[in-house]
Design a protein that fits this description.
- The protein has three domains: 228 residues, BirA Bifunctional Protein, domain 2 (2-Layer Sandwich); 59 residues, no CATH class; 93 residues, Anticodon-binding domain (Rossmann fold).
- It is built from 16 helices and 16 strands.
- The strands form three sheets. It has an eight-stranded mixed sheet, sandwiched between helices. It has a five-stranded mixed sheet with strand order 13-12-14-15-16, with helices on both faces. Strands 2-4-3 form a three-stranded antiparallel sheet.
- A hairpin with an 8-residue loop joins strand 9 and strand 10.
- It starts with a helix and ends with a helix.
Length: 446
């Protein structure tokens, strides 16, 4: 190797490494923002547990066939958006076809079937987690996005449809959102297979008469999934689509009885809604009741939560036939809505901040802080050495309710000075370090 080569290699090694960045559409959630997520998740869990729903967690990666069979082969998700890949081949040269989950319902159903979890009774379940769709990032929907969802499996009646809708409405209300002002509940009924087939024939015949008005996407769906044409957002097609045959007109007595049963419970509970005959949802597995909560506060991305009944999915994925209903709520979109209407997440409470002027007493200080934490107090200490003025600034900026001052004189007497930081007229007082758990309740009222 020449001297020039050695010099070049030395220059390359001295160069600063390239900064690596997150994948496009997959975003970091930093601590300040994560505090809002934790607040939202805690509020949601409180409601979910009151309705008797239990948490379920499934893998992020599933077999591609699960979503092709569950969601539908001619849906946008499977055709264009799903992250699907072939895994490395095993020693026999066989490779699995895998996918990052684009939604959670199919995975939950797969788990229930695999573990025979519906054998004895129905199940009420909820989940939180990331989903993945390779689409153009948009407001409230990145390529990695997060959902909270509920699934009520093994229950057939309109009462459970209504319960799930009541749960969703309560979630929104307890988050500080107002029905009619911040969101609207939309309902529809998709009926059963024979009813949808009769409507499908009439709908295709109607759309064929107006084929010149269909955009490219609608022409592609005309014969494969004509119901999705009704969900178009193309403004030039709205008048034509509004006049299309309505599925409600094709429903039989049993389907209408189910739908009216849902409506009767919502009416009795005082939950307002609007019947939207064009509401079909984006997945193939729905039947009977479908619903969405929509808002006009987020522009074109107006659906903040949606779901419905999917009685055929469990059998479709290999299980014993059983009814089911559920919904999914986008977490990013919900946080955007809360911010838009001025609902602010409560900041996490730090009860106390420890100011330690000298490192000499650190062992004694750390034992006292552990005693406080054991009693339920959240407390930080100031690491390293800095001036009292600097430490008080840190204590004030932390949002803590109290400063705990472990000065050398106080430590020599086994004491700590407790100074209120947020209470007007609050006076500083001395407390015994060895009895920290006894006065912890005072700090919990910060």
């Amino acid at each position: 190797m020449t001297a020039v080569d050695l010099k070049t290699n030395a220059q390359k090694s001295a160069q600063k490494p390239e900064v690596l960045r997150a994948v496009k559409g997959m975003n970091d959630i930093l601590p300040a923002e994560a505090a809002r997520w934790e607040w939202l998740e805690d509020k949601m869990r409180s409601v979910l547990q009151r309705y008797g729903y239990a948490n379920v967690r499934t893998p992020i990666v599933e077999q591609t066939a699960l979503f092709v069979r569950g969601i539908g082969e001619v849906t946008d998700i499977v055709e264009k958006e799903m992250y699907a890949f072939e895994d490395r081949a095993d020693k026999h040269g066989q490779a699995e076809h895998l996918a990052l989950r684009p939604e959670m319902t199919a995975g939950v159903v797969r788990a229930m079937i695999e573990h025979s979890y519906l054998r004895d009774s129905g199940r009420r379940l909820y989940y939180f987690g990331p989903m993945f769709r390779r689409e153009k990032p948009q407001k409230g929907r990145s390529r990695q996005f997060h959902q909270m969802g509920v699934e009520a499996l093994g229950f057939a009646g309109p009462d459970v449809d209504a319960e799930v809708i009541l749960l969703g409405s309560r979630l929104l209300r307890e988050l500080g959102l107002i029905a009619g002002e911040h969101f609207t509940l939309e309902l529809n009924c998709l009926g059963e297979t024979a009813e949808r087939l009769a409507h499908r024939e009439a709908l295709i015949a109607y759309l064929e008469q107006h084929k010149d008005l269909l955009d490219e996407d609608s022409q592609r769906r005309l014969y494969s999934n004509p119901l999705r044409v009704l969900d178009t957002k193309n403004p030039t097609m709205q008048e034509m689509v509004n006049a299309a045959p309505k599925l409600l007109d094709f429903l039989g007595e049993a389907s209408m009885a189910h739908f009216n049963g849902v409506r009767a419970i919502l009416d009795a509970a005082g939950v307002g809604y609007r019947i939207n005959p064009r509401l079909v949802r984006g997945l193939d597995y729905y039947n009977l009741t479908v619903f969405e909560w929509v808002t006009d506060k987020l522009g074109s991305q107006g659906t903040v939560c949606g779901g419905g009944r999917y009685d055929g999915l469990i059998e479709q994925l290999g299980g014993k036939a059983a009814p089911a209903v559920g919904f999914g709520m986008g977490m990013e979109r919900m946080l955007l809505l809360l911010e838009e209407v001025g609902v602010l997440a409560a900041a996490p409470t730090l009860h106390a901040y420890a100011i330690v002027p000298s490192s000499q007493g650190l062992p004694q200080v750390m034992v006292a802080l552990e005693a406080l934490r054991g009693a339920g107090v959240s407390v930080q200490f100031h690491p390293g050495q800095s001036s009292m003025k600097s430490q008080f600034k840190k204590a004030d900026a932390s949002g803590a309710g109290y400063a705990l001052i472990f000065g050398e004189d106080e430590l020599a007497q086994g004491l700590v000075a407790v100074k209120p930081l947020r209470r007007e007229g609050g006076e500083q007082g001395m407390r015994s370090i060895s009895c920290a758990a006894d006065w912890a309740a005072e700090l919990l009222n910060a």
